[in-house]
Amino acid sequence: MQIGELSERSGLSRDALRFYEKRGLIRARRRPNGYRHYPEATLFLLDYVRTAQRLGFTLAEIEAELPLLQGEGLTAERVETILRGKIAVIDARIGDLKALRDDLAGRLSDVCPLIAAGQ
Amino acid sequence: MQIGELSERSGLSRDALRFYEKRGLIRARRRPNGYRHYPEATLFLLDYVRTAQRLGFTLAEIEAELPLLQGEGLTAERVETILRGKIAVIDARIGDLKALRDDLAGRLSDVCPLIAAGQ
DNA sequence: CTAGAGGGTGGAGTGCACTCCAGGGTCAAG
DNA sequence: CTTGACCCTGGAGTGCACTCCACCCTCTAG
Fold this sequence. Notes:
CATH topology of the domain at 1-56 in chain A: Multidrug-efflux Transporter Regulator, Chain: A, Domain 2
Largest sheet of chain A: 2 strands, antiparallel
Order of helices and strands of chain A: HHEEHHH
Mean pLDDT of chain A: 81
Structural class of chain A: mainly alpha
Low-confidence stretches of chain A: 111-119
Distance between the termini of chain A: 58 Å
Number of strands of chain A: 2
Shape of chain A: flat
Strand order of the largest sheet of chain A: 1-2
Largest interface: A-B, 47 and 47 residues
Oligomer: homodimer
């Protein structure tokens, strides 16, 4: 698939895809004319990147974990440690979101405790 | 409390606090010498801002909801609608995080399905 | 009275993640 | 063989959320 199709199917701009390539997040083979050529799997990768990013991870963080996702030479223990760390971060974030959610839900019927905060 | 203490207790820099004031997120009374003076409640407000922000809301979004948090003239129905909308957004985000978490948890013992994504 | 910590302002600079642009090559259809 | 859609590159520009800076004022301790 070339960049236009990948752009359409992933929902990312061509510029964003080229930018990701510069950063090393994705790779492309080149056709003899210089055009980029992507395998289907890039869509999964981009979906993962998109999700992680929307959840508050920076591209640098996502980038750092790519070798892990792509199974490149790391020990099983190291992978496990990193994954457990990430899961802990995510669990904490879920906890925060639940707290915010409950806070908002409480306001649906309550008086607001922040009412005086601006003065 | 003056800006230095608020900075220390909130974990935000003085510059960030002045920046938030410019944006209208927080307000400060002024002492005769021009120094800012904040009530305790500002800490709650900043905590709320911090949390919402870390969860992916922009300052503009948070700003837009402040009148709501501070109970300024909105109908009960409107407040309820906005809150329900926000809760839905948060629930969706929790769902995404759970999916990512489960995905990572699965990798703890599995082979990686993204293994070919880079080629 | 002076030193040093803390406060004020306006404006420039930073890092991130794109986004846009100029200038140019490639390719299928008519 | 031209038109139009698509692709390439390098580099400048954008929006967000700060962060830093120069320069100046205020207050407390010694």
